[in-house]
Amino acid sequence: MGTALLLGCMAAFPQSVVKLTQALVRIPSVNPDGDPGVDKTGEADVAAYVGDFLKHSGAEVVIEEVLPGRPNVIGRFRSEPANDGKPKPRIVFGPHLDTVGVGGMTIDPFGGEVREGKLWGRGACDTKGPMAAMLWALWELRDELATLPVEVHFAGFMSEESDQHGSRHFAKHHGKDYAFALIAEPTDLKTVFKHKGCLWADIETFGIAVHGSRPELGENAIVKMAKLIKALDADFRAQLANCGDDEWLGRSTISLGMIRGGTRANITADHCRLTVDIRYNPAVRDHGGPHELLKAFVAHLDPSAKVTPCGALSPCLDTSAEDPFVKSLVEHGAALTGAPWFCDAAFLAEAGVPAIAMGPGSIAQAHTKDEWIEIAELERGAEFWVRWLRGEGA
């Protein structure tokens, strides 16, 4: 049955946040980058489903293509003028539509099975469950949204799991319109107001290829890389740490993730590539940023080496705990916390929109071979958003 027909038939309309999560999990929306593990990838089908759900909830819906066949979905709910005539602050609920790949999963990735008090499947926790909690709250409040003291929008972002094209596009074209962004991630319903930034970078060393029987006539790029690896793992790691700890995020880190060099055993390697993952806190940002620090460190040891970012730098999230929306979330029981991972919230914040990440479920279940979310947490998430939007007490 087609997506529009499914939602057009009210008998098939999801009757609970659990049923909604099942419906979302059963629509594959695997990010095509890396190793998706399925032939059909992309977010178009789940964007269409979410768009229909938003329309039934009373929103004006726009499907906004970011990459070919890979759209964001935006829902704008009607808002009545404030009693004092002043514009209402506009907020946006922003989950992501894509999931990581399904290779190696031990359960049906798109089954949406319910057992043992859990809902199972790819995206159940990251982040179709948290998205469903937001959507269900908007459905429950569909007759009240216009009279709330805030104007409510929804934006489902494509490609969060790789390069964050969706949130970057939304921030560029719509960011100035919002007073606050609530990004769905599995945070145990805590308010992630800070998270680390991320730099993935390739470090390349170069040599001179000669016959393996006379290596002294050439220059070995692997040997040059070995010296860099030792220094990166010790001295550069210490340099990052010396930039300073963050109360919520701790110290910045480097992980040496992949290495490749040479072409044959009997040829001296003329090229070697190391890929590193740097997770950095605001202290490193304030010391010039991870890319500049890494480039300077590598150049000092090997002027011929090359440092190239793999994609765009993902910034830190560093939203003020004194923001009134943040304080309101805390007052409703969503305690402050920080995170070592990064998400779409940072790109909204970079565009000037105070942002946090929050949702039911545990990050420990994200990307796992047996991904699940607890039913009780899913329901608690939907209830929290209803209560928070109504301004009801904790």
From TrEMBL:
<keyword id="KW-0479">Metal-binding</keyword>
<keyword id="KW-0378">Hydrolase</keyword>
<dbReference type="InterPro" id="IPR050072">
    <property type="entry name" value="Peptidase_M20A"/>
</dbReference>
<dbReference type="GO" id="GO:0046872">
    <property type="term" value="F:metal ion binding"/>
</dbReference>
<dbReference type="GO" id="GO:0016787">
    <property type="term" value="F:hydrolase activity"/>
</dbReference>
<dbReference type="InterPro" id="IPR011650">
    <property type="entry name" value="Peptidase_M20_dimer"/>
</dbReference>
<dbReference type="Pfam" id="PF01546">
    <property type="entry name" value="Peptidase_M20"/>
</dbReference>
<dbReference type="InterPro" id="IPR002933">
    <property type="entry name" value="Peptidase_M20"/>
</dbReference>
<dbReference type="InterPro" id="IPR036264">
    <property type="entry name" value="Bact_exopeptidase_dim_dom"/>
</dbReference>
<feature type="domain" description="Peptidase M20 dimerisation">
    <location>
        <begin position="194"/>
        <end position="303"/>
    </location>
</feature>
<dbReference type="Pfam" id="PF07687">
    <property type="entry name" value="M20_dimer"/>
</dbReference>
<protein>
    <submittedName>
        <fullName>Acetylornithine deacetylase</fullName>
    </submittedName>
</protein>
